[in-house]
Amino acid sequence: MSSLHHGSLILIFLASFILILNEKVSSVSPAQAKSKVHIVYLGKRQHHDPEFITNTHHEMLTTVLGSKEASVDSMLYSYRHGFSGFAAKLTEAQAQAVSELPDVVQVMPSRLHKLKTTRSWDYLGLSSSHSSTNLLHETNMGDGIIIGLLDSGIWPESKVFSDKGLGPIPSRWKGGCSSGQSFNATKHCNRKLIGARYFLKGLEAEIGEPLNTTEYLEYLSPRDALGHGTHTSSIAGGSPVVNASYYGLDADILKAFDKAIHDGVDVLSVSLGSDDILFTEIIKPDSILIGSFHAVAQGISVVCAAGNGGPSAQTVENTAPWILTVAASSIDRSFPTPITLGNNRTVMGQAMLIGNHTGFASLVYPDDPHLQSPRALFIPCPALSLRIPPLGRPTFKIDNCLSISPNDTSVAGKVALCFTSGTVETEFSASFVKEARGLGVIIAANSGNTQASCISDFPCIKVSYETGSQILHYISSTRHPHVRLSPSKTHVGKPVPTNVAYFSSRGPSFPSPAVLKPDIAGPGAQIVGAVPSSDLKKNTEFAFHSGTSMATPHIAGIVALLKSLHPHWSPAAIKSAIVTTGWTTDPSGEPIFAEGDPTKLADPFDFGGGIVNPNRAADPGLVYDMGTADYIHYLCTLGYNNSAIFQFTEQSIRCPTGEHSILDLNLPSITIPSLQNSTSLTRNVTNVGAVNSTYKASIISPAGTTITVKPDTLIFNSTIKTVTFSVTVSSIQQVNTGYSFGSLTWIDGVHAVRSPISVRTMIKESYANDS
Fold first, then answer.
1. Are residues 729 and 637 in the same domain?
2. What distance in Å separates the CA atoms of residue 364 and residue 350, rounded to the nearest whole number?
3. Catalytic residue from among 2, 151, 250, 286
4. What is the DSSP string of 404-469?
5. Fewer CB within 10 Å, N side or C side of the chain?
6. Is residue 549 annotated as part of the catalytic site, yes or no?
7. What is the pLDDT, as a whole number, of residue 674?
8. Would you report the helix, strand and coil content of the chain in percent, each value rounded to 5?
9. Residue 311 preceded by cis peptide, ω within 30
10. Where residue 454 sits, what CATH number does that domain have?
11. Is the dihedral of CA 468, 443, 594, 381 positive or negative?
12. 6, 113, 228, 294: which is the annotated catalytic residue?
């Protein structure tokens, strides 16, 4: 399995299944919809007494609602630890009135967030079988570091959450463990799973009634019904977890952040995303942006999923510069699975089938009216989702299995061939075939997306569209098509390539294109982890899942190890160490590709600094460090003034006078979205290696540009620990271009501190004077 370290402690915040809220909210009547959950954000804490803060929140709400009783009835949460604010049920008019009060920074409706849903640690060089000098051993498996996960809960019976061999809970831990439905705090929390909380007031207020756990598979407790949180937490900490739970609504998520800051976590892993991804007055901030800002200001690293909107550009989420945003990659493992057709031809797919082969069974292509003669040729019609294979093969319909009903007798006892358009459609297609009592399913997906997850307890083999078309040709050429599905084999190492996963969201960042996102990629395709059992008395079983949700806890686990090794490093320093040491080829030296339409060589918009390399990140040589002041200056470049900035932090930080460029933000990367002739920017690096060190610049200029660095040699000693340098990028293009990529690497003979560079030339048009 993919457990990492036995020593780290984990915190999880529970999220409900996305479909619950979608369905329930859509059924709320107009009368019920008059009051909705709103978040009133007040910025920094004005007092250190939590009870005093809560009282001021009630006083503020009372001025609008008219009575203390109405305030108590309306307020769901008081945020009083990492920042100040509250969540309350308000009408639009009441929300407007609250927004006009003098101390209010922002009032925003609470929105829904989506979950961004072994061999991986061996692949990264962190298993116990690797060198005794690797990061895992150097940090005693991250002993004493507390990881918080905002996710769908935990299945505490799993052996991966055992506290066997662990010492006492760290004295700095201020959290607790909440009992609830099928979850006993005394029984289920231990020295590994040191805390568990769940937050659902926001969800229940939004749907207008208590959550019906009979109608919807869920627990009113930290227990995980969905399985997402159990899987991600078993990746991040192996045998660990602190579980608090929220239900996917802004108000509940923000409370989870608030409590995590109070409880004393070191790292937060957030496998969630939203559509509003910029912290500005134009696009309203959300709970992840606000909560993560205050967490990082308290020294807590926040690791977030990039999203599963790939392979399209500008789909990356969680784009704030203080967040470590994670893309998903594959690992050097495959599961070749033979598919033997009735004509004795065998093709290969990917699956995790164990046991005996199925024997020859009937093979069916659901939705037969769309199966055309092998000789027919039709014009492509995107609206009908039709794909045209090579001449001589039948046309197939995308997502042909989504119309299968549980009573579909044409599928019962047979293997179905399904063509799918994406990850969700793959999961639904397999589920529908299973519900119709099918024997198994062959999923044909885009050739760059054969890693899409199937359901774990049903024979499901993935093939490319090309292979699926070959199978369909066989079906159309015989009256009684048959197929045999054989057990999978496991292949590790060469020639299995490392790719950025098809589904992984891509840059550039739409709201803030000068900030490179994603930051780094980690294993997120076909990752094994713990999942809930249908029997509460049984240990959790294991299953393979794919998504940036799976990549995020890998990086969070590595951050925890780095935090253990370097306890005084800031979140920015840890992020820099990870970004500047990433693999840009796979561990065996082969190129890394980005799956897509078509597949291409990966670039920084696919994987940021590369594939995470934890052992090199432990000793990066130099780091690009930042603190709250730098993030405040970033907000200044977005148009925030001193009055607004004052609300964000307890520190007396103001916007700098004069012009200030977002390009000067001390990121471990350089992204210039609109280069006109020439531009200069500054960076500073801090030496975290040998005291006396000399680094020289090695530059790979993006195509169509020239780059100069001054100085091009950095000298550090006992008195010089931080050095500032300038970078000038000039265009030699005469026309507008797309992005091109390069790098700046500081080399001292031991370390190679690499910053990815992304540049797009945008030449201003000039017009001659007619007169």
1. no
2. 19
3. 151
4. --TT-TTTTTSEEEEE-SSHHHHHHHHHHHHHTT-SEEEEEE-TT-TTPPPPTTS-EEEEEHHHHH
5. C
6. yes
7. 92
8. 25, 25, 50
9. yes
10. 3.50.30.30
11. positive
12. 228
Q: Which residue has the higher pLDDT, 580 or 659?
A: 580
The Cα 471–Cα 396 span in angstroms is 11
In a domain, 751, yes or no: yes
Domain boundary (456, 489, 522) is at 489
Same domain, 130 and 245: yes
Judged by phi (left if over 0) then psi (alpha if -120 to 50, else beta), residue 599 lies in beta
Cβ–Cβ < 8 Å for 177, 171: no
> Which residue among the candidates 162, 509, 549, 758 is catalytic per the annotation?
549
pLDDT per residue over 170-194, tens digit each?
777 777 787 888 888 888 888 878 7
d(CA 119, CA 166): 24
Q: Is residue 21 part of a domain?
A: no
Distance CA 421, CA 449 (A): 9
Select from 55, 74, 109 the last residue of a domain. Answer: 109
Four-residue CA torsion sign, 414, 415, 421, 425: positive
Run of H or E including 195: strand 195-196
Contact of 166 with 596, CB cutoff 8 Å:
no
C-alpha span between 349 and 335 (Å, rounded)? 8
- 754 shares a domain with 669: yes
pLDDT in tens, 450-503: 454 565 568 888 888 888 999 999 998 898 999 999 887 776 655 567 889 888
What average pLDDT score do residues 688-699 get?
Answer: 96
Q: Does the annotation mark 163 as catalytic?
A: no
CATH number at residue 533: 3.40.50.200
Length of the chain: 771
d(CA 330, CA 547): 10
Helical segments of 580-718, H only? 604-607, 614-617, 628-637, 642-646
Contact 350, 450 (CB under 8 A): yes
Counting the structural domains of the chain, the total is 5
How many other CB atoms are found less than 10 A from the CB of residue 666?
22
Percentage of residues of the chain with pLDDT beyond 70? 71
Domain of residue 641: give its range: 627-661
Active site residue 228: yes
Would 205 be classed as within a structural domain? no
Indicate whether 353 and 454 sit together in one domain.
Answer: yes
Are 603 and 634 members of one domain?
no
d(CA 339, CA 463): 10
CATH number at residue 102: 3.30.70.80
Question: Distance (Å, rounded) from C-alpha 466 to C-alpha 618?
Answer: 43
Name the H helices within 152-200: 185-188
Distance CA 157, CA 191 (A): 14
Residue 194 lies in a domain: no
CA distances to 28, 251, 518, 740 from 761, in Å: 50, 42, 21, 9
The stretches of 298-422 forming alpha helices (DSSP H) are: none
| 616, 735: one domain | no
CA-to-CA separations, 211 to 202, 203, 204, 450, in angstroms, rounded: 11, 8, 6, 37
Distance CA 153, CA 134 (A): 31
670 with 576, same domain? no
Q: What is the pLDDT of residues 258-268, one digit of tens each?
A: 777 878 788 88
Nearest to 64 by CA among 29, 17, 99: 99
pLDDT at residue number 371: 40
Given a contact cutoff of 8 angstroms between Cβ atoms, the answer to whether 86 and 41 are in contact is: no
